[in-house]
Each structure stands twice: as structure tokens, then as C-alpha cells.
Amino acid sequence: MKITLDKVVKTFDTFRAVHGVSLEIESGELLALLGPSGSGKTTILRMVAGLEFADSGRILFGDVDATHIPVRDRGVGFVFQHYALFPHMTVAENIAFGMKVSRQRRSREEIAARVQELLTLVKLPGLGNRYPSQISGGQRQRVALARALAVDPKVLLLDEPFGALDANVRRDLRRWLREIHQELGITTIFVTHDQEEALDLADRVVILDQGRIAQMGTPREVCRNPNSAFVTRFLGDANRLEGVAARGAIRIGNTEVIRTAVADGPVEIYVRPGDLVWSAEGQGLPVTVTRVIDRASGRRVLASTESGFPLELDVDVGVDVEVGARGGVLVRRASAYPLRG
Ligand SMILES: Nc1ncnc2c1ncn2[C@@H]1O[C@H](COP(=O)(O)OP(=O)(O)OP(=O)(O)O)[C@@H](O)[C@H]1O
């Protein structure tokens, strides 16, 4: 089911949470809505679900305006971080719940068979008789997904479904969700404020800033070509430096650090740690090492430029570098934006 948002606006009292968002989610696509707290992600999802109504603009399910389709007829399945399982029902009863209250009548045998099928799909066979308190947080979210899938939704809406879980479990569930999505091909909108999660999972990401779309594209597109300082900062892990652009070259102090197209004048420059190369011989931008953090994957070097900007870069495990060492860094790739103010 394709979903279209056409200039959707939502205001709470006097506060405008969503400012004319237009967006098309293709049938079978897994789209992530990514943005900081308060950027309007949940409000957009709730409007698609029919739990909230737009002040203006339209939401289409296929070619049909969804405004007047009640929640239960929209064919959407939800998994919300706080949309807990019913504690007094077993896992199987939780999964069966939607089928029992659905307009589509099913026999007891049909429901039981479907519950078993779903338990297998979410890789929890044999746990049907447990209560939610008797399974782990990660297992609970799998059950929540099975419950959402039970009524054969045309659209799946997931709002920070793994938000409360620890990093390893999140990573496993992410992979698992991707597999389930591939298997079932249901149009899915996934809300998260975690850029790694969004980039890892989604076919396309929409980055929101204060109720507006800052950028949308495939994970590769937004990572390679962030269109603003906001997106670059939000995608994370970027060093920020200041310099001056003139005729396509950016200089910091006396050093030309990179050539890139940006208007002449003061600029802010964003560089990922992996795009900086350490030079013990002092080539490039002069820096002093302030800290070295050893990790299984390599060494993270923290350094400071002559004008006092902190920098982080990665070097191989075998590279000798010590606190207090002076050297240089070469910039392989960077994004630059005119410095305002
Ligand atoms: N029912 C409401 N009444 C008033 N203001 C609201 C209501 N719901 C949301 N808002 C406001 O609208 C803005 C967007 O909220 P929303 O929950 O959509 O953001 P979000 O991006 O999902 O944030 P988070 O990641 O914190 O959940 C926020 O400033 C919020 O305070």
C-alpha cells in the first residue's frame, strides 16, 4: 500500500508541530522518520494511523483520502515503545487479541493456527503460554510485532519499538525486523531518533527538523551528501572546524585543508573521523594529541588544532601515537557550509 502525505500541517493549540510535510512512501518500502526529540516524528505517525488529524493537507492510502477512514478500517498495525502487551493475557492470547475483535470473523481453530504461525515467524515457538512478565524485553517486542501482524495489516507503524532495550538486543532485533520486512513486504514507517538504527534498517530515511523535512534519501545519499549543517551534525560523529573559503579552497589558518565548492567567506567544515588521516610527519593541519582511546577495531585519537578546535580521528591498532605528540591531519572528504552570524 502506497502512502502519500500532501502538505500536511498539524498544530497543537498555538504550537505548530508539523509544517506542511509532503512525502511518498512506496508500497513495500521501509521508511525511517529520523529526527531529534520534538521534531514531529510521532505526530506524523499518529496522523497516518488515524489517531490524530491534520489541520490541513491530505494523507492518501493508495489513491484514497484517508481522512475519513476510521482507525480500525485503515489496515494499520502498530508497535509502540509504550504500547505494552496486556499483562493478564498469555503471549498467545495477546497475539490473538486483534483477530478476536476484528470485523473479519475467524474460527477458534483458525485463530490458534495463525497464532502458531506468527510465533514461528517471530522466532518464539513454544512461548505461547507464558505471560509477558515471563519473557525478556526483546521477546516482548517480538510478541508486540506478532500482535500487530496478526490482522494482516497493509501498513506497519513502528514508533521507537526498540527504544527501551539495550544496544546488543536492539542490533539483533533490527536485523530480525529487516528480515521479516523482506519476507512480508509490508509498507513500514519506523520512527527513531537513533541515526545508526535508521541508516541500518531503512530503504529511505526522512530527517526532520522542527516539523519540516530537512532531507530525505537513501542512507547512502544522505550520508554522502548531507545538505545542511543540521543534517551533518545530526547524522553524527562529525568533527566541526571553522575556516575561510576562497576560490574553491578552504584554509584553516595558513593551511589549505581541502578544495570544495562553497561561497567565499567564513565557513563551518564537517569531517568524519574516518575521513581524517594522521601524519606523524606533520603534513596537513597541525594538531597536538590530547588523548588516545584503544578499541578492538582501532585507535581513536583525540587532538586539538592550533586554534583550539577538538578533533577525533581513527588510526590502525598498530600506529604509535602518544598524548602530547605533535603531528598533522589530512582531510580526505569534508562538507562545508557558509558560517552564519
Ligand atoms: N497532544 C499534544 N499537545 C500539545 N503538544 C504536543 C502534543 N503532541 C505533541 N506535541 C508537541 O509537538 C512537538 C512534536 O512532538 P512529537 O511527539 O511528534 O515529536 P517526536 O519527534 O516524536 O519527539 P520524541 O522523539 O521526543 O518522541 C513537540 O514539541 C511536542 O511537545
Automatic annotation (TrEMBL):
Recorded superkingdom: Bacteria
One of the Pfam families matching this protein, by short name: ABC_tran
Keyword Cytoplasm annotated: no
Molecular function terms from GO: ATP binding
Domain ABC transporter: 3-235
SUPFAM superfamilies attached to this UniProt entry: MOP-like, P-loop containing nucleoside triphosphate hydrolases
Family matches, as PANTHER family: SPERMIDINE/PUTRESCINE IMPORT ATP-BINDING PROTEIN POTA, SPERMIDINE_PUTRESCINE IMPORT ATP-BINDING PROTEIN POTA
The family this protein is said to belong to: Belongs to the ABC transporter superfamily.
Name used for this protein in its record: Sulfate/molybdate ABC transporter ATP-binding protein
Species, as recorded: Chelativorans composti
